[in-house]
Amino acid sequence: MRYLFASVAVAAIVTIPAQAQMGSGLISQEQAASVGLKRAWFARADVNPAYSAVTDWILSNDTLFLVTNAGLIQAMDANTGASLWSTQFGNPFYPSLGPAANDTVVAVINGSTLYLLDRKSGRILSDRRVEGVPGAAPALSNEFVFVPTFSGKIVGYPLDPNAPNFSRWYYKSFGRALAPPLVTPKHLVWTTSDGFLYVARAHDPGVEFRLETMGQFDARPAYRDPLIYAIALSGDLFAVDENTGTLVWRYLTGYPTDRAPAAVGDKLFVSSEEPMLHCVDAASGLAKWEALGISQFAAVTKSHVYGVDRYGTIHILSVNDGSSVGRIATGGTLNALVNDQTDQLFLISKSGLVQCLHEVGADEPTHYVERPAAAQAEATSPSAPAPAAETTEPTEPAAEPADAADGFGEPAAQPEGNPFGTPTEEAAPPAKEESDFGVDEENPFG
Q1: Phi/psi of residue 271, each to 5°?
Q2: Which of 43, 60, 117, 213 could bridge to 195 as Cys pair (CB 3.0-4.6 Å)?
Q3: How many CB atoms lie within 10 A of CB 446?
Q4: Three-state SS letters, 140-199
Q5: Cα 78–chain centre separation
Q6: Could you tell me the pLDDT band of residue 87, with boundaries at 50, 70 and 90?
Q7: What pTM did the predictor assign?
Q8: Distances (CA, A) of 331 to 25, 50, 324, 349, 354
C-alpha cells in the first residue's frame, strides 16, 4: 500500500452526512471514498467505555501502543488493526503514564512503578519503584529508560541487565518536568514548567546545554535532524539546533496549545486553541499558511493535509496553501494521533473505536522516518493473526499489590542481573541545591 503518491482529484468542498454512522465516529467506505480516502481497518481497543478509556497512544514503526486508565497496555498492528497482545499491569486505580517504545522494549509507569515489557509478546520483563513522583511518560533510548519527575529531576536507568546499579544518573532541572521527553539518535531532550529546554547526551549521559524561555512547556518536543522543535503552552514555537544549542527561529501562534508539533519533510505543523492549524517552514520558521477551525493535526501526504476539528469533523486541506478540499462530518468526538511518521490517519473515539484511513490507490504506507533494520525485517515477516471478536467486556484487573497500605511497596525480589530489581546499594541522594547534575559517589558520569 503506497499512500504518498495516490492521486486524489476533488474539485470542490464536499460535505458527507454521517448517516448510519452518525454519533459512533465510524467512517463508512462511502464517506471515505467521496473524498479520495479508504478506510483500511477499524477495531476496538480493549476498554469498557463504562469505566475506562484510552489515555495515551503512540505509533512506533508499524505498531500502535495504547494505554488505558485501567492499567492496561495493548499493541495493535498499524497496517491491519490486529491486536498483537494486551497486558494488565500495576494497579488499575493508579494513574498510568506512557507508553514509550524502542526496538525491543516498551515502558510504562503506573503510580510510582516503572514497568518494562517485551515489545513482541507484551510479557512484563521487570518493574521497579522510581525515584520521586513521575510527572510524565518515560522515554527510551537503546541504553536507558528516562523518567521525568514532578520535582524536575530526570532519572535515567540502564536497560543493560549487566550494568552496575551506580550507572544510573539524574539531572535536577529548574521547574517541573510535565511533558514526555524526546530521544533523538544522539540526545535526550526535555522541557519544564519554568520554560527551560534541556539537551543531554542519550548514550553517554551528561547535559550539553539548556535554553531558557518565558513559557511553560506541556507538549512533547518534535525533531528533524538537526533541529529540535518545542512549543510552549503560550503558543510560542521554538527551533533549536541540537548540536550547538542555538535558537534558530521562533514562531508565534498567538493562542495556547498542548499538542505536539509534527515535523514532516520541510514543513512543520502545529495546532493552537484558536482553533487554527499552522504550517511553518521547518528550516526558517516562516509561516506558509493557516487553516482556521482545525484543532488537531492528523497526517500529511504528497498532496493533502488532514486535520480534525472540535466536533470530530475530518478536514482535507491542500498541502500547498491550506485551502479546503473536502470534509467528512462524523458526528462523533474523535482524537487524531499526531502522525509525523507515515501518511496514515489514525483516529480514536471515546468508546475505544480505532480506525485507520489512507488515500485511495495506495499499496503500503510511506514512512517519513527511517525505520531500524529490525523493524523492516519484522514488517516482511508473516502477518499477525486477525483481530479477536470485538467485546465490551472489561479485561479482568490485576490483583492488588501485596503492600496495600500505600500501593507502592518495595518490588519483589528479581532474578539476578535484572536492572529493575531491588537495588543492593542505597539509592542515590537527591541533587544538592547548588548543583544541577546529581551523581552517585561512584558514578563514572560525574
Answers
A1: -105, 150
A2: 213
A3: 11
A4: ECCCEEEEEECCCEEEEEECCCCCCHHHCEEEECCCCCCCCCEECCCEEEEECCCCEEEE
A5: 14
A6: very high
A7: 0.79
A8: 6, 20, 19, 11, 15
